[in-house]
Amino acid sequence: MDGEESQSYSFAEFTLDPRRRRLLRVESQVPLNAKAFDLLYFLARNAGRVITKDEILNSVWKDQFVEEANLTVQVSSIRKALGDQSADPRFLVTIPGKGYQFVADVLPMGDRDRPPDVETETIELIDEPAAENSKFASNHVAAISVIAVVLTLVAGFAAFKYFAPVDELPFGSVAVLPFEDETEGGSSETYLADGLAEGVIFSLSRIPDLRVMSRDSVFTFRGEQADVQRIGQELGVQTVLRGRFLRSGDSISVSTELVSTKDKSVIWGERFTTKMTGLERMQGEIAKSVVRGLKIKLTGTDASMLSKHQTDNYEAYQLYLVGRHHLNRSTDDGFAKGRDSFRQAIEKDSNYALAYAGLADAYGLLASWGSMAPNEGYPLAKSAAIRALELDETLAEAHTSLAAAKLFYDADWVGAEESVGRAIEINSNHSDAHMIYGYTLMLQGRFADAKPYLKRSIELDPLSIVKKVSLGNAFYFERDSATAIDLYEQALNIDPNSGLARWSLGNAFFQAGRTDDATAEYEKAIPLSGDSPDEVASLAFAYAVTGRMEDARRLIGDLEKRAGRAYTPPALLAAIYGALGERDTAFEHLEQAFRQRDSMLVYLKVDPLFDPLRNDPRFADLLARIGLNPQEPETKRP
């Protein structure tokens, strides 16, 4: 850029540098996707003037197709990056019926004032930063996975305060370890102890001032007398909450202590007792006490959300905990049993929003793992998520489940981005929401925009194989096999017996031309992956590409037999036939995939499995039908 288009601007504590396409807060880079950066730069250059939506669409994205709904998403991204709120904005004001006005004082900067390069890819400031807020307000509890942040996409207002980074807090991060079950008789009550600890995690995750580790990472320390300093190093947290759970008849007792990972000192400790019927309320009381121990002040809105009560029916709450326990097993049987438990919880309390959110998760997992056909599972997941949000719009998990269905079933790119963006606005600690947002961007070929979200999901869930593999996928789809290999190997370091990680590593090896290594990884992955068809399909694809046609046909025959007894994505078969050079057969399977809403279709633009079919005009037509630009995504090639 030159002239006005290369001019840097400053406002408040921020600097916009168009030449390097960076938004800085002081000297720290704030992640912002490309469309949002373009919009912010246009608004800053026109500060003080009311700008209509049409003017924005015609000026900022003149040569691109951008719907008005997407403009709303980009405005939300800008407000999030700036720590702004629509109720009392410092920077961006919505003018109802007209457009927007950038109200901050904007100053042009000369070259001598231009900020230096920041050599970092950090995404720390992608979180909602911490608020300087009002006096702590007590009261309780606990809808699992809800936080008290009001999304700027909708009406609903809260008083604005200046935001400071989480790291400036005395204790800005916590890991809630699984509570040790000391009930006589062993593990019969473990689901209650686990459910209570998981509930505390999600109650705390609603606090925007606090970084809370995901359940999947902290629960890897179950049964270990691990040194809290080691936990702090592995998870990157300042504090650890430990608890001992004891049930005696109808009474529950939980002894808790909050420990510093720096010097092992006990910051706070307390014992909680209740009857079984008060278990949900205990969850909220523990969370509130942890907040006090961490010296975090709450806004009135945050405090009221912590005090929110989800159900008065203890049986429904208990069934909900059983359902979550089954889902966390991450097996087909667990997903089915979880679904059944959530159904029973809804029978006990038809207005139990969390049970509907759990049911949406169960159906989504059954569909994504192939236990149900996508056109059976995803509509049920959508219906349950929508019902959950009708009852409680502030459930981040329900927004995330809805986003996944919109993405993998409807190929509704704008709708998926809006839903998962709402989830992150509600709960910036929800690692799955960051991951789904990453996939929403990555599958469109928007790799640079996707990576900060995928990295953030790992920061919140550092021991998750799925999260590590997901970031690796962004580099694999970008054709950067070296980086993908490194990330997949990191996932294997977490669990050498992960079929997912070995299959992914095989894919990256094959992309790098290491055919023998790829074949070896596929052969290791197949017995580790149960009845999954993906690993077999990748091996068949590799055989076809390398000329081992007979072996490829043998495996595709096995997959076609499998399709007679279990759902097998038609797009997988299409990829193998494409590698065999049988294009007509391949496109017959792709048309079948389109009719069945095969979830693999949303991978068409980026997945190397479909490379043999890309130069066929029918491929571009299919991409257009699912809302993807046929133009090749930007890739990094050797």
Please give a quick description of this structure:
This protein has 638 residues and is α+β, with helices and mostly antiparallel strands.
- Helix % is 40-55%
Structural class: alpha+beta
Strand content: 5-15%
Largest sheet: 6 strands, mixed
Low-confidence stretches: 111-169
Number of helices: 25
Q: What is the distance, rounded to the nearest whole angstrom, between the alpha carbons of the first and last residues?
A: 29 Å
Assembly type: single chain
Indicate the mean pLDDT. Answer: 82
How much is the radius of gyration in Å? 25 Å
Shape: globular
Q: Write down how many β-strands occur, each being a DSSP E stretch of 2 or more residues.
A: 16
Structure description:
With 638 residues, the chain is an alpha+beta fold. 49% of the residues lie in helices and 11% in strands. It is built from 25 helices and 16 strands. The strands form 4 sheets. Strands 11, 12, 13, 14, 15 and 16 form a 6-stranded mixed sheet that branches. β1 and β2 form a beta hairpin. α9 (314-327) runs antiparallel to α10, α12 (374-391) packs antiparallel against α13 (396-408) and α16 packs antiparallel against α17 (465-477). It is globular and about 65 Å long. The model is unreliable at 111-169 (pLDDT under 50).
